[in-house]
Write a structure and sequence with these properties.
- The protein is α/β, with parallel strands linked by helices.
- The chain has helices spanning 2-41, 44-55, 67-81, 91-94, 121-129, 144-148, 170-190, 194-200, 204-209, 213-216, 232-242, 262-268, 279-282, 296-306, 327-332; strands at 60-64, 86-88, 107-111, 134-138, 151-154, 225-227, 246-250, 256-261, 284-285, 289-290, 310-314, 321-326.
- Helices cover 48% and strands 15% of the residues.
- Strands 2-1-3-4-5 form a five-stranded parallel β-sheet, sandwiched between helices. A four-stranded mixed β-sheet has the order 6-7-8-9.
- The radius of gyration is 31 Å and the shape is elongated.
C-alpha cells in the first residue's frame, strides 16, 4: 500500500502545482492586459495632472480608503523620494481633524476604484470649499469623485483576478502603475537627477551606489604634494606627514606632472645621493586619476583593476589636483 500512497501524493502535488501556476498566470495576464489598455487610454488629462502638480506651491496630498489607501501611501512615498513633496492623509482620520494637514497651496490626489467611497466625501467637500485642486483616479466617470475632480484620470474597466472578481488585484495594479507614471513624468519635467535622488536616499545600497568621488576625497592641506624640483628628502617628509603612501608631484604652475609611491622609492633608493635627487627624477609620469563627479564605486573598481590604492582627483579639463581618494575611503563608505 505504501507505494500507492506515494504515487497519490505525487499526483496531488502535480495537480496543486498546475493549479497554482494557472492562478498566477491569470493574475499576471489580467494585470499586463489592464496596464496596456491604461497606457493606450492616457490622454491630455494626464498632462493636466502633471501640470497641476507642478503649479502647486505646496505638497501632493494623496488619499484613498482600504486597498486604494495602501496604494495611495506608496504613491505618496514614491513622489516624495523623487522630488515631489507628498503626504498621505487617511480619509477617515481627515474627518476627525487631519483636514488641518491640508493647505490651499496643496493638490489633492484621490484614489477610488468605483469613485463612491463614502469616507472621501469630507475631503472632496473640503477641496471644493477652499479651491484646492483635486485630481481623481477612478473607473466610473459618473461617480461622485470623478464629477468633483478638476482633473480626471479614468481607469479602464478590467476584471479583477480573484475567482469571485471582488478582491482588488487588477484595479490596484493599475492605480500603482498610474502613480509611478505620474512620479516619473514629474521627475523628467523637473530635471530630477542622480545627485538629488542620492540626497533623498543617503542610507542603504541606493545611497552607497550614488556616492561620488567628491564626497569622499581629501582636499586642501591634506593633499600630499611636492614641487618637481624638491629634493627627495623633502618628498619623504611630505609622505610621512600625509600618510597616503604617495606624493603628487606638481610643476611650477601647480599642474600634476607625476607621482611618487612606495614602489618608486624601492626602485630608486639604492642609487647614489638618493636624498638629494630631485623629485622629477624619481616620479612616475602620467599618474592614474579620478574625476570629482565620478561615482566612487567606479573609481574603486578602477583601483582594483589597476592594483593601486589611491587616485589624485582632477576636475574636467583641469590639470591641478583638487583632491586625493584612497581605497580605504571607499571601503569605509561601504562600497565593495
Amino acid at each position: 500500500m505504501a507505494p500507492i500512497k506515494t504515487k497519490l501524493k505525487a499526483v496531488s502535488a502535480d495537480s496543486d502545482q498546475a493549479s497554482d501556476l494557472a492562478a498566477a498566470g491569470r493574475v499576471l495576464t489580467y494585470a499586463a492586459d489592464a496596464l496596456r489598455t491604461l497606457g493606450e487610454a492616457l490622454d491630455g488629462e494626464f498632462t493636466r495632472a502633471v501640470a497641476t502638480i507642478l503649479a502647486a506651491r505646496g505638497r501632493v496630498i494623496v488619499s484613498g480608503m482600504g486597498k486604494s489607501g495602501h496604494i495611495a501611501r506608496k504613491i505618496a512615498a514614491t513622489l516624495s523620494s523623487t522630488g515631489t513633496p507628498a503626504h498621505f492623509v487617511h480619509p477617515a482620520e481627515a474627518s476627525h481633524g487631519d483636514l488641518g494637514a491640508i493647505t490651499r497651496q496643496d493638490v489633492l490626489l484621490m484614489l477610488s476604484w468605483g469613485g463612491e467611497t463614502a469616507e472621501l466625501s469630507d475631503l472632496i467637500t473640503y477641496a471644493k470649499r477652499f479651491s484646492i485642486p483635486l485630481i481623481g483616479i477612478a473607473s466610473n466617470p459618473d461617480s461622485t469623485l470623478m464629477q468633483a475632480a478638476d482633473v480626471k484620470l479614468l481607469l479602464p474597466r478590467a476584471p479583477e483576478a480573484c475567482p469571485m472578481g471582488l478582491a482588488p488585484t487588477t484595479s490596484t495594479t493599475m492605480m500603482l502603475g498610474l502613480g509611478d507614471a505620474l512620479a516619473v513624468a514629474l521627475m523628467e519635467r523637473k530635471g530630477f537627477n542622480a545627485d538629488q535622488y542620492r540626497d533623498f536616499h543617503p542610507g542603504g545600497s541606493l545611497g552607497r551606489a550614488l556616492i561620488r568621488v567628491s564626497d569622499l576625497m581629501h582636499v586642501g592641506e591634506e593633499l600630499p604634494l611636492a614641487r618637481d624640483d624638491a629634493s627627495m628628502r623633502d618628498v619623504l617628509l611630505v609622505m610621512a606627514e600625509r600618510r597616503f603612501g604617495c606624493v603628487g608631484i606638481i610643476d611650477e604652475e601647480g599642474n600634476l606632472s607625476g607621482i611618487i609611491t612606495d614602489g618608486d622609492l624601492s626602485r630608486h633608493i639604492d642609487g647614489d645621493n638618493f636624498l638629494d635627487r630631485k623629485a622629477r627624477a624619481v616620479m612616475t609620469r602620467n599618474p592614474k586619476i579620478a574625476r570629482p563627479d565620478q561615482l566612487a564605486a567606479e573609481a574603486l573598481a578602477f583601483m582594483n583593476e589597476k592594483k593601486i590604492t589611491r587616485l589624485f582627483v582632477l576636475g574636467d579639463g583641469e590639470k591641478k589636483p583638487s583632491g586625493i581618494l584612497h581605497i580605504h575611503d571607499c571601503l569605509r563608505a561601504g562600497l565593495e
